[in-house]
Structure formats: structure tokens, C-alpha cells
Amino acid sequence: MNYNCHFLREMGVYGFDQIEPIILASLVSGDPLLLIGKAGTGKTFLLNSISEALGLEHRHYNASFISFDDLIGFPFPDSETKEVSFLKSPATIWDAESVLIDEISRCKPEIQNKFFSLIQERKIQGIPLEKLKYRWAAMNPLFSDIDDSNDQYNGSISLDQALADRFAFIIHVPDWEALSGEEQNLVIRPSGEGAVNSKSETLSGFIETLRAAFLTIVHEPTDEVVDYCRIITTLLTEAGYRMSPRRARLLARNLIAVELVAAKLGYPTDNKTKSRLYKLCINWSMPHRAWKGHIPAHIIDVAHAECMRQINSDDPNDRWLQEFLRTNALKRKVNMIVESHAPKEIKSLALIQFLHHGSTMETAIFAFATQPLFDSWNLVDDEALAELAK
To answer: Among the CATH numbers 3.40.50.1970, 3.40.50.300, 2.60.40.1730, 3.40.1440.60, which is that of 7-213?
Structure first.
């Protein structure tokens, strides 16, 4: 599913065809990107090549041995402003437009913590980095992801969960066996080693055009995007892969950016293609890859399939019923029955199904708290009230 994707190949970067729409979407949104891959899979080469093609003032830091002072420079008091300033150098971060924090899973915890504001807010030491457009990071797989005893990364540790959750896309970079024969041949050619890309006006124009559209659409996402994010977040959380409210918001941004990229590249607009794009997006939007490791494919497959079934359903009552049954929070269930305009018979059916399949403690608490309310407000029918009374 790569259609007219060719930007990375034009840079001499090969093997990323299947995830190129995701890479381009991250450039459109400008949200943080994390690449996870084994040694020699081209993580650093990809990101450095993108910075060259976009003509960015780039900084590449190795987090395994960096000192935070290397980023900010030597502090000195400014006699005029009475504030502390920092001596700039070609290595400091102040004038950077893009930053790559390489080997982020190998840095000391105290250094890792200092990356929070840089990655989330484009700030360092509380000072805004006005020129910074892109924040990228790369790391080796976690031990739990290594299936080859001869391929170990003992120094690569899990990211702090809160830090991992700041990255919009968390992508596993394909290794040799995942490449096509053509891609393998292209990768082998020594001519690309150390090559520097000239600025690509085509790529820059592509990103700038979609960026303008993104900034408009992101304030008014479609109902479909909102519904997908809400439902998939709930389903994956219930499957044991908690998705934070921040993650749900980042996922919406990711979907908007991916849809814009796909439309610009000429992807079909049918439901099947949209479903594949949404699945590609959620697959590479799960922060658990940076701290929990492997995510079974069937978990994402099942949650995505159910989510698409619900958002494509023509019956709003069915969608409401499924959301009520899927919601674990009892307070949320009460609010849904009180506030929704769903027909009384649908609310009653949902209530009866919940009472029959929920735990005894859960349903008892729910019934004790709600039976007088639902009765006096005439929110459900007599059958449902009888079930509550039991």
C-alpha cells in the first residue's frame, strides 16, 4: 500500500515503502517520532536524510553518553538582563530546527527525564526553542523483542512510560528479512554510504501544503476520526493495553495527517482502503512498543475490526448499545442512560444485558445507586426496572 510514495527512495533511503505514509504523516503533523530497530536498519540514516532533504538546521545527539550541558552550552550571567544565558556553539540545541536523540533507551534516567519538556513542549530549561520543528528519537529493541540469542542489546532498557507516551508514532523499522529482493539489492549498493542529500523542494512543498491543511482540520476532526479514536482507545485499554487520554488525542492527529498524505498520494477513498490506513495508523501509534515490547498482532486486529464495524454501522442505536456495554466505568454508564437520546427500549435492552453479564458486586452497586433515579425519571421500561429491583 505505497501507491505514489517515492520521496524516501529519491533520498537513497530504501526498505521503508510500507511505512512511508506514516513517516510523511509525522512530518506533516510535526509531532514527535520514535524509531525502534536493530543495529544497521537505517534509523539514523533515514532521519538525518530527511533533515537534509528539508534543509533543516539539524542536531544529532547520542543519548548513551551525552551530558545535558552538551545540549544547552555553558551558562553565564547576562549583565544587561540579569538572567542566565548560554553560550551557543554548532552543537548546542538553541538554533536547531530538527533534533535526533539517538540511543534514547541507553541514556541515564536523570537525562531521560530532562527530555520530557523537549519532546512534548519544544522547551529546554523552561525556555522555548522557537526554531525547533521536529523532535525525533531512535532506539534498539527491548530484550523482550529479541528472538535471536545472537542478537542482544543489553544496554537498551524500556523507556519511562510517560516519556514513551509523548511520541505520536512509535515505529518498528523493518530488518533484512522484511525487505523485498529489489529493496535488498538497493540497500547493498555502497554508493549511498555517507551520501548527503540536497534540499528537495518537492518534499518541502508536499509537507508545507499538507501542513497548512492539517492545522485547519485538526481543530474540527470528522466524526469518524473522533469515533474511531474513542472506540479503539476503550477496546485496547480493556484488552490490557491502556491508552491514555493524551494518546487518544495524538491518535486523532495521526489519523488526520495520514488521511491527508494518502489523499495527496492518490489513495482510493473506499472503506477498505480507509480501514487499512486506520489499522496502519493505530499499529504504529501504540507507545507500549517503547516500554512493554512486543504487542500481539491479533490484539490490534480484533480491536480494529470491531471498531470499524461499529463506526460503519448504519444503526446509531446499535452503536450506542455497543458503546454502553463496552464502557467499564459505572458513572459513565449512568450518564449515558441519563443524557442520551437513544430510545427507551434500547436503553432498557442495554441495561438488562449489563445486569445479566456483569459481576454481582458491580451490578449490585449499579442497581442500588440508579433504580430510584431511573424509575422516577422514566428512563427505562418496567422489565429493566424489575431487573434492577432484583
So the answer is: 3.40.50.300
